[in-house]
Amino acid sequence: MESNDVKTDSWRDIVSVLALFYIPPVGVIVMWFLARWSVIAKWVITILVGVIPLVVLGTFSYGGYKFAKFEKSYAPVMAVQQGLDFYGISNGKYPANLDDLKPKYIKDIPTGIEYTPSDDKKSYVLKGTVEGKQVELRPALANLIEK
Fold first, then answer.
1. How many CB atoms lie within 10 A of CB 86?
2. How does residue 115 score in pLDDT terms, banded at 50, 70 and 90?
3. How far apart are CA 43 and CA 28, in angstroms?
4. Integer Cα distance of 53 and 138 in angstroms
5. Alpha-carbon gap, residue 140 to 126, rounded angstroms
6. What distances in angstroms separate CA 60 from CA 23, 25, 55, one per listed residue?
7. Residue 134 C-alpha from the chain's centroid
8. Could you give the count of Cα atoms lying within 13 Å of 41 in the half-sphere of its Cβ?
C-alpha cells in the first residue's frame, strides 16, 4: 500500500519542480500547496527561488530607475553640448553666445546653463545644474577643423 501512495503522490513533486523551473514566483506558491516536502526544504527553496531573485531584481531595477532619472535631468545640458559641438564642426569655431545656436542646432536653450567660450572660440566651458549638483562640460572634440 505504501508504494502505491508514493506513486500516486509523485505527480505532486513533478508538478512542483516544473512550476519552480518555468515560473518561479508562481512555482513557489504551487510548491507550498502541492509538494510533500518538509517545511525546511520548502523554506530553503522559497528563499533560493523566490526571495533572492526578487531582491536582486529589485536592486537592479532601482539602479536602472535612478540612472534613467539622472539621464532625463542631464538631457538638457547634453543637448546644449551637442548643439555647440555641431556648430563647431560646421563653422570651425564655437559661437560667441548660446543664442547663435537657435534654431538650427537647438530648439530652445534651457534655463540655468552658463556658457563661456575661450578667447579664440576653439573651446568652451558649459556649466549646468543636474539634480542639484553643478556639472561642467567641455567640448567633445579635441580639435576643430578650420573652415
1. 14
2. very high
3. 10
4. 41
5. 11
6. 20, 18, 9
7. 22
8. 9
Q: Where are the domains of the chain?
A: 2-65, 74-137
The segment with the largest mean pLDDT, out of 14-18, 19-23, 50-54, 97-101, is 97-101
**Rounded-to-integer distance, Cα 101 and Cα 59, Å:** 41
- Grid coordinates of 18: 516544473
The grid cell for 3 is 508504494
- What is the C-alpha separation between 92 and 106, in angstroms, rounded? 18
Alpha-carbon distances, residue 112 vs 21, 106, 138 (angstroms): 53, 16, 17
CA distance 125 to 119: 12
Which of 3.30.450, 3.20.20, 3.90.1200, 3.30.1300 would CATH assign to domain 74-137?
3.30.1300
